[in-house]
Amino acid sequence: MTRVYNFSAGPACLPEWVLNKASEEMLDAHSSGMSVMEMSHRSSEFEDIINTAKDRLRRLMDIPEDYEILFVQGGGSLQFSMIPMNLLEHGADIINTGQWTKKAIAEHKKLGKTNVIASSAEANFTYIPKITQDDLTPDSDYVYICENNTIYGTKYKQRPPHEGKLLIADMSSCILSEPVNVSEYDLIFAGAQKNIGPAGVTVVIIRKDLLKDNDKLPSMLNYKTYADNNSMYNTPPTYGIYICGLVFEWLENEIGGLENMEKINHKKADMLYDYIDHSRLYSNPVAKEDRSYMNVPFVTGDKDLDAKFVKEAKEAGFVNIKGHRTVGGMRASIYNAMPVEGVEALIEFMKKFEEENVKE
Ligand SMILES: *Cc1c(COP(=O)(O)O)cnc(C)c1O
Prior knowledge:
This protein has helices spanning 16-24, 44-61, 75-87, 99-111, 223-228, 238-255, 258-278, 303-315, 340-357; strands at residues 5-6, 67-72, 92-96, 114-119, 142-146, 148-149, 154-155, 166-170, 187-191, 202-207, 295-298, 318-319, 330-333. β6 (148-149) and β7 (154-155) form a beta hairpin. The protein has 9 helices and 13 strands.
């Protein structure tokens, strides 16, 4: 068996510890004589799995008791609609940082007043627009941001001002990569397939006082339904939740928490950016202060050479490193599960490619 270094933006690589544990428990999980996939979601075994996962996530992110943790389906993308359905009354202020906020804006527009209060579109989303309290719409309900833009490789290092308004963040591609002060936010969501687990689960962390009965909303689209039923109003994605739980266990016991995880992530990202910034071949277009620790886009400046890089990288065991079609070039997604050795090996490969392809 040969495992590759998988730089996919999502679904992304998972910690080998998690995959091994799942494999050990495949036929007989928690002494039940069956796989987690075969368990009733109403069984005490599964109840223990989901509650342990929630407890671990609460400890890892230090989530205050007045926030609820929900497991929802429909991906990160359903949240683009569920958020306005549940929380938009007078208007939503959205900061456009590319694809993932564009999609949120499109869904919001179908459901209520949508104000795009800032955008970095004119620079192909290579920076995070800085706003002031004056940029906010007086009667809007919330400010909505994409904390880490997976495609452009940008990341908020500070929260935008949002006095008097809720703050909502799409953390699909950076959740669990660093400690977060949850109480700065009112709702955080993340599709699992980047940094939490397999596709099919979305984690929503929401302030409890925002959960409301609503006769107009289908039950499955109301956050309160999930909160009232421990995310089991209907059959939840049981196996996905179980794998998320194993990732939380790995972060707690093998990594030692999010502060340690952040140190490892900074080490990986700093190494890669430092090499790119000093190389004669590669460049990264993102404003330095806004660079992502998770997604690192880079180009050679020559489309044919980019294609050659992607092809030769694959042959050398570095897969899914092609950039998003709207950006081109390459993108190395270096989520929590990408080991330091994977980034070191990638840099060695990049050096060799540079030597072979840069003419003196
Ligand atoms: C991947 C991603 C999404 C969409 O997730 P789906 O689960 O495919 O709907 C949303 N936001 C961000 C930041 C993402 O990276």
